[in-house]
């Protein structure tokens, strides 16, 4: 083709001096080993420290559960980088090693290399299995919410268009009542609550180093209850009670939000999380009680909390 013919050709084409060949081999070695090595070192040095770069942009986990999520995140990045380095290395290797050295040469035409095809079929399957097993293990650790391991506190969370209501129980907790079934059986005898509105951002108080379970309900549409600093979130689905536990590991103030686009004022579904000492937590519940924000049952959006949106009239029209 025209372009190739116009290109000035190196004097070393075909024959090439020893010095030039030596340089070319050196350059190949640099590509083959230097680049992957530099990438690997950069990565490992990044993950070793506790900075934001080391956490690969994840927030610093403020919960025991968040540490598992961070481990999975970092492990997945390391695995992805190793995979990338091997693949890029192989690509550059074959491009350089098996390049056409002069115009009269036709490279070896290899087809149906069975061992190679078996390898590149099995290797991705093994990778998927490894990623999957680590994901399941992390999920089990994060969602460890067994009856044999009851939480210290249970907070009933209601996500409604467009804010949150937090119901804290008063007195002793009855773990058996907290079976998530759609009954009127709640784990505490009475409740205090803090309900947000479109113009009031509610507060969620949690005692540090204690495990709190959130029972999530929605009377209208799907919301998603999450706190970035805890590295945890979960959908709040009408017609069912989702739940997860969090063990905050350090005191402080964090922001929480709705992660599911749920309507016009979705962006107002913010809340402030205060992780405090047990004494401050008790004091906050006392303050809510003194303010008259009490109820016998938690505020969960009434009957509609147990109904799938759009299916309320089921049975009536027939
Ligand atoms: Cu929402």
Automatic annotation (TrEMBL):
The keyword Transmembrane helix applies. GO terms for cellular component: plasma membrane. Its cofactor is Cu cation. Residues 150-287 form the Cytochrome oxidase subunit II copper A binding domain. Gene3D superfamilies: 1.10.287.90, Cupredoxins - blue copper proteins (2.60.40.420). Residues 50-146 form the Cytochrome oxidase subunit II transmembrane region profile domain. Binds a copper A center. Residues 1-20, 294-318 are annotated as: Disordered. The chain crosses the membrane at residues 76-96, 117-136. Pfam families: COX2, COX2_TM. It is found in: Cell membrane; Membrane. Keywords: Copper, Electron transport, Membrane, Metal-binding, Oxidoreductase, Respiratory chain, Translocase, Transmembrane, Transmembrane helix, Transport. One of its GO terms (molecular function) is copper ion binding. It catalyses: 4 Fe(II)-[cytochrome c] + O2 + 8 H(+)(in) = 4 Fe(III)-[cytochrome c] + 2 H2O + 4 H(+)(out). Subunits I and II form the functional core of the enzyme complex. Electrons originating in cytochrome c are transferred via heme a and Cu(A) to the binuclear center formed by heme a3 and Cu(B). Belongs to the cytochrome c oxidase subunit 2 family. This is Cytochrome c oxidase subunit 2. It comes from Nocardioides anomalus. The lineage of its organism: Bacteria, Bacillati, Actinomycetota, Actinomycetes, Propionibacteriales.
């Amino acid at each position: 083709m025209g372009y190739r013919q116009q290109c000035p050709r190196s004097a070393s084409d075909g024959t090439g001096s020893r010095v030039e060949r030596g340089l070319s081999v050196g350059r190949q070695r640099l590509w083959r080993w230097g680049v992957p090595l530099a990438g690997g070192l950069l990565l490992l040095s990044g993950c070793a420290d506790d900075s934001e770069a080391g956490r690969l942009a994840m927030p610093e986990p403020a919960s025991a559960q968040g540490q598992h999520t961070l481990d999975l995140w970092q492990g997945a990045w390391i695995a992805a980088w190793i995979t990338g380095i091997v693949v890029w290395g192989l690509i550059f290797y074959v491009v350089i090693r098996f390049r056409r050295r002069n115009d009269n040469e036709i490279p070896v035409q290899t087809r149906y290399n069975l061992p190679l095809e078996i390898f590149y079929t099995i290797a991705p399957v093994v990778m998927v299995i490894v990623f999957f097993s680590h994901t399941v293990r992390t999920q089990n650790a994060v969602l460890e919410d067994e009856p044999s391991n009851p939480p210290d506190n249970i907070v009933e969370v209601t996500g409604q268009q467009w804010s949150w209501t937090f119901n804290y129980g008063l007195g002793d907790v009855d773990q058996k009542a907290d079976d998530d079934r759609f009954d009127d059986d709640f784990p505490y005898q009475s409740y205090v609550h803090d309900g947000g509105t479109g113009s009031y951002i509610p507060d969620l108080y949690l005692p540090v180093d204690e495990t709190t379970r959130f029972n999530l309900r929605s009377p209208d549409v799907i919301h998603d209850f999450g706190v970035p600093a805890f590295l945890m979130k979960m959908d709040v689905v009408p017609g069912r009670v989702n739940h997860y536990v969090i063990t905050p590991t350090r005191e402080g103030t964090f922001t929480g939000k709705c992660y599911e686009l749920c309507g016009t004022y979705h962006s107002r579904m913010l809340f402030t999380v205060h992780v405090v000492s047990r004494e401050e937590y008790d004091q906050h519940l006392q303050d809510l009680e003194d303010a008259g924000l009490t109820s016998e049952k938690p505020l969960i959006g009434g009957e509609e909390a147990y109904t799938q949106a759009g299916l309320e009239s089921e049975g009536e029209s027939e």
